[in-house]
């Protein structure tokens, strides 16, 4: 049984939080996957953790930090119910997501990393009222956070994670979703021809949600070869 939290005040998490979370990294990664992994993640296969130096952990965590991306799909409509406007007007939606990794370890498989992270979906709505007497707007933001555990393969560039079953509540209101699983394609290294992180979030209680963002980190590689047509000699042409 998966769990999530709804919050009205959301902001991007700074990477400095990673340093604070390093103290609990070993505890987080030593935990057994609470949700079923193999039914939803054919690849990468799980592997045993190995000791990972702190400096290496920081570098690896930064490479999986996604500060802002966008989501779409019918699943988003299920998670975030529509709010009709009163009178004349319209609502403008901005659907974003972020992923904050808080535990990572190398494994006995050289190309496989064990990762824990929090994926947060945020629905920002700006309501524009255009009544005869009043013209104004107001915003409201709702977020849902999933606590995920899984594996990344640098050979296939695939990340697959399942919900750990942790639960947060707000104002004594708790919502549960079963069988939540995340699939992301994260190019390593990224390039001009392959700069995007793409994938989907699925659950037993909501349809697939499509995710897309740019690769972040310091390992972005520009192509060394470029095919550009030669600039014509203006002087010779005249």
Automatic annotation (TrEMBL):
Q: Which residues belong to the signal peptide in this entry?
A: 1-30
Q: Does the keyword Endoplasmic reticulum apply?
A: no
Pfam families from the UniProt entry: DUF2921_N
Q: Which UniProt keywords apply?
A: Signal
Q: Which InterPro entries match?
A: DUF2921_N (IPR057425)
What's the source species for this entry? Zizania palustris
The organism's superkingdom is given as Eukaryota
Q: Where is the DUF2921 domain?
A: 37-202
What is this protein called in UniProt?
DUF2921 domain-containing protein
UniProt key word S-adenosyl-L-methionine: no
Any transmembrane segments, and where? Answer: none
């Amino acid at each position: 049984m998966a769990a999530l939290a709804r919050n009205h005040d959301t902001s991007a998490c700074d990477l400095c939080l990673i340093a604070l979370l390093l103290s609990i990294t070993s505890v987080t990664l030593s935990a057994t996957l609470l949700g079923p992994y193999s039914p939803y993640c054919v690849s990468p296969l799980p592997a045993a953790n190995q000791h990972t130096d702190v400096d290496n952990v920081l570098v690896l965590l930064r490479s999986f930090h996604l500060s802002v991306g966008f989501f779409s799909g019918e699943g988003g409509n299920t998670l975030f119910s529509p709010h009709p406007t009163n009178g004349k007007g319209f609502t403008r939606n901005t659907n974003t997501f972020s992923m904050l990794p808080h535990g990572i370890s190398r494994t006995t498989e050289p190309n496989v990393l064990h990762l824990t992270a929090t994926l947060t979906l945020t629905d920002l709505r700006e309501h524009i009222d255009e009544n005869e007497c009043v013209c104004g707007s107001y915003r409201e933001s709702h977020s849902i956070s999933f606590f995920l555990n899984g594996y990344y393969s640098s050979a296939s560039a695939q990340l697959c994670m399942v919900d750990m079953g942790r639960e947060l509540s707000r104002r004594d209101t708790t919502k549960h979703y079963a069988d939540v699983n995340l699939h992301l394609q994260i190019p390593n290294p990224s390039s001009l021809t392959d700069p995007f992180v793409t994938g989907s979030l699925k659950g037993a209680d909501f349809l697939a949600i499509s995710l897309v963002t740019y690769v972040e980190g310091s390992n972005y590689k520009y192509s060394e070869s470029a095919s550009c047509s030669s600039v014509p000699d203006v002087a010779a042409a005249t």
